[in-house]
Amino acid sequence: MALWLALYGAAAAANGIAVIVNPDSGIDSISREEVSHLFLGRIKHLQPGMPALVIDTLPLRQAFYQSLVRRGIPEINAYWARLRFSGRTQPPLQIEDAAMVIERVARDRNAIGYINGALVDSRVKTVLRLED
Amino acid sequence: MAPWSIHASRRCCALRTDPLTRAPDVGAGTATSHQFGASVVWRTTLLILFFAGLVGILVALASTVMVAREERERMKQSLVELMETVERTASVAAFARDEQLANEVARGLLRNGAVSRVVIREGENELAAVGDASVDTRTVTLPVLTLPLASPFDPAERVGELQLWPAGERIEHDAGAYSGYIAIILLVQLVVVVLAVAWVVLNVVTRPVKKLSDDLHLLKVGSGEQIVLPPGHRNDEIGRLTEDINSLIGRTGDLLAAERDMRAQLEESERKFRLLFESAQTGIFTLDGEGVLQDWNPWFSRMLGLPAHGDAARRYALGALLGDDTSRLDALMVRTLSDQRPAAADFEMPHGTAGSLWLHLVLNPMPGNLMQGIVNDVSEQKRAEASAIAMAERDPLTGLLNRRGIEHRLGDALASLRPDSGLALMVVDLDGFKQVNDTMGHDAGDRVLVAAARHLEAVVRRTDLVARIGGDEFVVVLCALESADTARFIASKIVSTLARPVDCGDGQSATIGASVGVAYTAAPADLADKLMRRADDAMYEAKRAGKSQFRFATGS
Known about the structure:
The structure holds 2 protein chains of 2 kinds.
Chain A: H1 2-15, E1 17-21, H2 32-39, E2 45-47, E3 50-51, E4 53-57, H3 61-69, H4 73-86, E5 93-95, H5 98-107, E6 111-116, E7 125-130
Parallel strand pairs in A: 4-5, 4-6
Antiparallel strand pairs in A: 1-6, 1-7, 2-3
Chain B: H1 3-22, H2 28-38, H3 40-95, H4 99-110, E1 115-122, E2 125-131, E3 145-150, E4 158-166, H5 168-218, H6 237-279, E5 283-287, E6 293-296, H7 298-304, H8 318-322, H9 328-339, E7 343-350, E8 356-366, E9 370-377, H10 379-392, H11 403-415, E10 422-431, H12 433-459, E11 465-468, E12 473-481, H13 484-498, E13 501-505, E14 508-511, E15 513-521, H14 528-544, E16 550-552
Parallel strand pairs in B: 15-16
Antiparallel strand pairs in B: 1-2, 1-4, 3-4, 5-6, 5-9, 7-8, 8-9, 10-12, 10-15, 11-12, 13-14
């Protein structure tokens, strides 16, 4: 399992992580900072008036946050633990499978997620590619 | 407190009761402060308490200020630490723009009593603001504390700030209470130390010194008493002071005794000298440069009729007392003072009804233009001298002047001759006297001589002079004659008178005669012996002419 994870991670790293949104969202590209603000709850909307649906892909979570803000999962968890106490800012929805993430993003115009770059298909639009 | 002290203060109070009850408006404070100020014990104690209290109050004030400042600083530090404790959470709240979390943090901070208001900002956005916004942020208390909040993911990115208003009144109150507490501890410590110092000074220094002072004050010098050494001070300065005082007392006593002895000796010798001075049968006096008497002894006052003691109001001039009209005393004083050597002179002063007093005066110069004098009564000597002189100039048989006597007086008579008058000198030689002497004896001859003398005296005036200058040779001097005629008349009267028989005693009588030579002059320049010779020559001429007659000298 560990070996698989390592291989998977290596493969993901090789293809990069793609941040994806609904093609109908009207968003063509998004900056690295905006992505981090979205995933850490600082920016709460993709479209005016509608709360953004932010989705974590569990197997890629470590690589994603490491690449984005250079922090480990325990730190990210601790951060969310503080915010969850207030209940106003919600952490990203956590989904196990990349296919389900794609399906969810394809369904919702306010959704944003990330998947292995190799798995991106036409149902979603890549707005940022994290190489590291 | 020692018994003596109690007695002293009780006595003081008892003494003060009376004036206080009589004059209540004077106030008890005057008496009390006087009493306190007079005692070294009270004064030292009060001074120690006063200065220590002053210092204590200053120290307490200074420490209050410093402690309050320190306390404020400490509180500020603790507030900063409090802010740093919640910094992470506040950063998260600011980063996530989470008002809920921000409020949670702010309320948590506000729960601290030293915090009056908390504001958490995200950019211009106020995420949370709790506490009393109307709090007056006075500058005297702590300023508003501001902590910048960085992004939890990028320390370089500033996402907001945490502002905290310290609770001024609360901090002041706490700081004041703390510094007050410190001040009370300081004051208590100070009071204890001061009381200890005062007690030690009182018992170790002041009270022994006061006891020494009291003992010394009540000590009778010369009675042999000594000061008692205060117990426990044998080896320190107070012990040394006591020993020194005692040795001084001893020495003073010795000095006093020596002085008493010396004074007694002095009084004794003074008494002796006074006795000498007062009982001396000599006048002793002092005189100033103007001849005014200053002191004199009883003999002097008796002799000169002065009071026994001098009187400052009266000035007795010695010259006036002596009846010195001719300023001989002044000359004597001048000589004494200028030569600075003793000088002496005799003075005759009228005394009693008829007599006179002869005083021998010796003046000794003294410092300060003064003179010391000695006076002796030399009246007896003077009288003896005068009578000796008189004896030497008298003929013992007839009582007339002798040759020396007439020569002595003739000079004076000539000298005092006035221009409009003349003087006659007669030499009277008895005729037939040798025969009386030979036949009837010396006694009869003496009687004849005495009778002739009485006759001559009877013929002339009292102011004229009669002398016997040889065995039967007499001289008569007529003074102050208006003309030679008077002399002629007197001479003839002498001749006729002496021609009568003379009673020689034993029923016998003798008849003699007299040959008289007269020399007359009106010139005072004439010498006595020349006049005498002329009269003598004229007498011999009368003898040759047959005796019992008179002849005028040629040129008279």
